[in-house]
Amino acid sequence: MEVWTITKLHKWTSRYLNSRLEAEILIAYSLKLKRIELYINHERVVNEKELADFKKLIQRRKQGEPIAYITGTQPFMSLEFFVDRSVLIPRPETERLVEVVIDHHGSQLTIADIGTGSGAIAISLAKYLPEIKVIGIDTSPDAIKISQKNAEHHKVSGRCEFRIGNLLEPLKEKVDLIASNPPYIPTQDIETLETDVKDWEPIQALDGGVDGLDYIRKLVNQAPDYLNSNGRLLIEIGFDQGGKVKSLVENNGKYKTIEIIRDLSGKDRILKAILQNDH
Ligand code: GLN
Question: Taking residues 116-121, what's their average pLDDT?
Fold first, then answer.
């Protein structure tokens, strides 16, 4: 009978999935090992039961299910987040938004994360800014369950509150900073997305309406009613939306500093706007 070591399984899977990284993540998850332990134990033999269980995972991946939904977790800001199909898988681009908030939060004490999903933004902010309080909002009760579980896991539930509701409506108090990674993909572009995304991730977390700006427009227009003076609005936007977003914030007239911040690859990524004192 053929003997499968971890090394052999890794080689075979890397070829089958066309990704060494995905192979590594799936093997580690399946054998309940840390990724580094695969290298330490590379000659360990994988038994028949383990092989059979692993094959089931590989088939799921082959059918397009994202790795994060298979393993149930996704790293974000060096923290591990629980995810399932009710939430968007946190993206590396969104880490930029969190970093910008950390750099620009000033004396901001209360932050709202609109469309919190897994809670990735809210919880990593609470984790890295120990003096703040965060309110995470999402329309999906299932998403709120996940975000609460993540906050407990990261021991910040004392400073994170999660509320179910539409955009800013659940806010009964004013906050110092509003952060959001809203759905911003134009409806007609959804079908051009990778299968992993369009067939598996929640459409309501992606679809931003005809021009992709439905939620961004609402956030820009509603935020002044919910922000303290000098309050800040930081929103993740699409790579080609900088110009349009900048003019809709300018046209609103209630903001002073308006800036489009680029990501590491030079693409428009974040809107940063500061409210005027006398709005
Ligand atoms: N706030 C979550 C994230 O950034 C979810 C965003 C969304 O569902 N659009 O990952």
Answer: 98
Q: How many CB atoms lie within 10 A of CB 68?
A: 23
In DSSP terms, which residues pair with 56 in a beta bridge?
Answer: none
Query: 114 C-alpha vs ligand 1 centroid, how far in Å?
Result: 8
Mean pLDDT of the chain, nearest integer: 95
Spacing of C-alpha 183 from chain mean position: 11
User: Ligand 1 pocket check: which of 87, 97, 113, 237 to mutate, most ligand atoms within 8 Å of Cβ?
Assistant: 87
Which atom in ligand 1 lies closest to the alpha carbon of residue 91? 10
For 197-202, what is the mean pLDDT?
Answer: 96
The reported pTM is 0.94
Q: Is 250 left (phi over 0), alpha (psi -120 to 50) or beta?
A: alpha
CA of 247 to the centre of ligand 1 (A): 24
